[in-house]
Amino acid sequence: MQWVDRIRQVKIVLVVAAILIAAASLLISHKLVSDLKQEERSKMDLWAKAMNFVQEADSETDLSLALAFIEGNTTIPVIVTDAQGSVMEYRNIDEDADVTDYARRMRQAGDTISIDLGAGDYLLVCYDESTLLKRLTQYPYWQLGIVMIFVVVAIFALLSSKRAEQNKVWVGLSKETAHQLGTPISSLMAWTEMLKESYPDDELIPEMEQDVRRLERIAERFSKIGSLPEPVATSMNEVLDHVIAYMDKRTSQKVAIKGHYPSHDVMVRINASLFEWVIENLCKNAVDAMEGQPGKIDLWLLEEGDTVAVEVVDTGKGIRKKNVNNVFRPGFTTKKRGWGLGLSLAKRIVEEYHRGHIFVKQSEVGRGTTFRIELRRDQKAMPMPMLKG
Hints:
- The chain is α+β, with helices and mostly antiparallel strands.
- The protein has helices spanning about 1-55, 65-70, 100-110, 130-200, 205-225, 235-250, 270-290, 320-325, 340-355; strands at about 80, 85-90, 110-120, 120-125, 230-235, 255-260, 265-270, 295-305, 305-315, 355-365, 370-375.
- Strands 6-8-9-11-10 form a 5-stranded mixed sheet. Strands 2-1-4-3 form a 4-stranded antiparallel sheet.
- α1 (about 1-55) runs antiparallel to α2, α6 crosses α7 and α7 packs antiparallel against α9.
């Protein structure tokens, strides 16, 4: 679908833009941090020279400029030690810090400048990055996080907006379809009544009547899209029986459809019309997967504590592993015909309307597939969902 492709293109553009912004930010910040590191290194070189100048000066030397430079360092942590590692002086160090340990870590990091005192003696100026430089080092990662948050919010807002527009279109189209189907369905119902009076013994007329009722139920399903039909306690046994009765007469005799239920009625709060459509869709896909070959479809109704499960097991061609995660995606289909919307809408009906779960339990190429639906007995209704990109 064109709108799906556009949404994907917008997603790609946003992701690429975020990556480019993040990469540019990291590069610029890295260059800035590198320049500041070099500048602080240069300052420490000058600071060490000033210290050396003070050490070598005699009583007549003017030390005012050198001392002013030494005192001017108010941001860069610095520790001066002798050749044996004993601390002689330090600046811009937290009073609670272990100065000796701090100097050791500076030496291990290689952030030192040696002052030669002659005769093999020397002083070691150990320094660390300033607080400002440390903050700038962390800044790109904070910026990257902000950019990622922006992209996520932008994508979410875009999808929400698109979804709302799509939902309005689907609701309007569905209700209009239901309205347009109403008149011909009423006419067909009247014609079947007339045929029953004229040909009371004709065996085909009851079948025609069932198909007309089927059209009426389809129109009812379309009319409920976007609304909140109240789910009622329903026998899942009867729901599956209806599906089997409908599919059995409209499926090749090569395919056997059989139900396996508990001896008692399994009651669940559902919308029977919509849920029957889900099971019918799974059965139709199973029939298509058999590609005209003999096979069978088993509908299993299981009770597992507060959960009621329905499993649709077929002996069709199966689903390749690479496609298992895509079968519920709108537009995905392996058939020559079809829009690839059936399983997607089935998933929305089960998961968003009935608050259940539908998934491929297992599938093996050449041996068949098992779809499983899980429902809680006490689930609450949600508005009938729309297809989303």
